Amino acid sequence: MATRVTSSRLVGRENELAELEAAFADAESGAPSLALVAGDSGVGKTRLVAELVARAGERGGHTLSGECVDLGDGELPYAPLLAALRPLGRDDDSVLAGLPAAARAELTALMPALGEEPAGPAAGRDPGAQGRLFEAVLTLLNELGERAPVLLVLEDMHWADSSTRAFLAYLARSLFDEHVLVVASYRLDELHRRHPLRPLLSELERDARVRRVELAPLTRDELTAALDDILAAPPAAELVERLYARSEGNPLFMEELLATGLDGRGAMPRTLRDALMLRIERVPETAQGLVRRLAVGGRLDHDLLAEVAGLDARELQASLRAAVDSHLVIADADGSLAFRHALLREVVQDDLLPGERVELHRALADALERRSAAGDGSVAISAAIASHRLAAGDHTAALAASMRAAAAAEVVRAPSEAAALLERALELWDHVPNAEAVAGLEGVDLMWRAAEIHNLGGRRSRAEALLRTALEDLDTTAEPRKAAKMMARLARFQWHLNRADQALDTLRAGDRLLPRGEDSPERAALLAMWARAQMFQGRLREAIERAREAQRVAEACGDAASLGVALNVLGTALIPLGEIEEGTAALRRAGEIAVERGDPLEIDAAAVNLADALHAAGRSRDAIEAARRGADELAASPNTHQWLNLMMGEIAFDLGDWEQAARALPEPGRRFDDRTMLVVELGRLQLAMGRGEHAEAAEWLERVRPTVEESTEPQFLAPIGALQAELLRRKGELDAARETVETLLGRLEHSTDDLARFGNLATASVAVEADAAERARDVGNESEATRALERQRVFLDQLRAAAENGGPIQRAHLATADADASRASGANDPALWVAATAAWEGVERPYPAALARWRQAEAHLARDDRDAAAEAARSALETARRLGAAWLTHEIERLAGRGRLGLDVAAEAHSRPAEPADPFGLTARERQVLALVARGASNREIGRELFMAEKTASVHVSRILAKLDVRSRTQAAAVAHRLGLAEELPVP
Asked: What is the pTM of this model?
């Protein structure tokens, strides 16, 4: 029998180790990354990672390592992170002492030994708690990395809880320049089709900074080398062949087969599990008893194992020595004991008799209960007790333990695990006599609490379902106030699920339950949510009325939370209707209330809404100041103000700082809830359209299409619809653009108060109809041109209604639409485009101002005023190039080329390709005409496009036919395409 089980050196993993070492070297230089180490059970993932840890330590790195625990998803949150950070509380107090106070307080959730006051309420009452915890851990990793590069190892991610998976996703998208390498290992053979790790892996592997290292079985030569090292002598060929054939190159299987003493002459076990059981059965019975307890308990410390073993000190020590010497059990540096490999534990678990298993779970639960009663209320202890009580079949004790474990999970900012534990309590409810007394609350309240925590974990569908069930079980006649309060929360969940009509129905039903005229917190909450829903739908006057009522009720009963929401809605609805000062005051007071209450989400909402409303009112500089003030108030909670960052990016885009707008957007691939995703993608779409990246814009539109189709909010639908219509207009798909607008207007017909939101949409629609009218007139279809003008009038009426009581932005939209209406009629008055330009410049919107100047140049050219056209085109071109507006730049240059405008385009000359030569002696003007002939344009269309008379266009075509020696326009087009003469010339 071999004197040791494993090889003393790493065999056959040179390439994989080199890749991981390269990743660590990148981390040393400030290029953090994530490495995924994948492979089947026993293939050597842990051994590879251990070698990396050793080499990182040799290079002065700081290594943190932890492994996930097989207690089932939703049992023990942050198991690998807790294990990884535990040594810091003992060994590196100086690092922890150097952290900001807020970060130290957050870390207390995971490291109670810090002795700090917890940072805010538990996760069940604080929506931003988990995000702040992740931020604090990242701050800690960054601080450690400033001293030495950090290697963070998270092993066995196939057993990871939801919160650990969320943390890994957070790290993947948040690491920027920290000196950190994160290594996560997982079993490939555990990942069934619906395994919860699969979606995360799919997301991570799309990131260029994520490396995937997959371990294959050892080759025959590699297995021979490993045997040589283990046996300290060259192995016999027969032994190599037998072990290789049976193990199929799996290192663990090979080692365990060898450890049984089989040298190739005896019968081989049928499976790896058989080989492992042979190993276990060879140790003394007392050692087997310890091994069985360890299999049930997982990783146990010495004192706990001694307590449940029932052995005296001498017997315990001898039994442990036998298990360790047989390479079954290993002792960690912190004194805990565990199996050498998880497969060993699985084999022992499977071999336990049912009654034996129950007794062992009960004994461990009793021991842990005693430890908890002595003062250790950690989440690990609480979760383990709950798991053991359930496995022991003690439903009453399992219910009580699940409730305690859920509370402990909330403390460590793990809402998904807390909700799962509460769901377990619900499953046990009907099996426990007097369950309310055991749980400490009614069943309806347990469902409500689980719903709230599911909502925090992002599972709003489950939260909505639980709350509906709770309401069905509640006697609404006996408890109307409680039912009304629950309905206010249910409506909020339904709204976030894009079920606007259901949400409003729920709010109305809740209000009907309460006595008429009564001022109560329940009515204040209902009215405030009702007002917010109406505001989101654009029913501003209804929202104002409801918000004032909610304000009065909230003030009467002292409900600060509902008062803040009511004032937020009130201000957001007042400003678009021209009541700017009153609206601003209401929003600022809403922000102050949120600060007083310590509610970062409402601080963010007030700041975003104030900035958005002021920006839409043309007071962009005030909007920037409001956004910055909100950011300062949220400085201690940076993860909570994503919308505020996006708002500042939107303002930057409109003010002409497109680089800042791009920086405000998160990295592609990050996941958000539906409403936040729409804001993010709207920002991307806006930039793509401005830059002329039409393929990317189409891709983003397709990505948000399902969510857009479910939404009823003008704040999303109007701008997205306007950009989609503009994209289709640029592509010449006017019918599709018109259909897009009509569809959206049909869905938003109730939003009559929020006409300002439709400025972009209505203006884009007028431009579509102007193009349609021009196209119809070009082909002599006057009836279609007339219909386009009639369709245009609907949008013009909307814009005039918005501008009548609106601000300078609405008037700028109307000025643009009036100019486009003139274009549609055939007049195309340059003075109207001058007015539109001035209106946009007055509110510091350089891009729409440049668009108006381009159209102004086009209108001047139509009147043969080339000097005025050149001046307008030159100004528009300068702005377009400064912004990076590639599409507009191209359109202006095309216009200058067609109209032979003498623009100063020297800056672009070096990048132009040489003018293609042709053997026919065509002039530059004739080449431009030929390009249009090749596209199928008529003489009339050529004249309009190149600002010449139709007769002049006909003369040019006749000359081209003669020079090409062809008889028809079709033949001319064929020659042009074949010889590359159909490309439009650049500006002369």
From this structure: 0.70
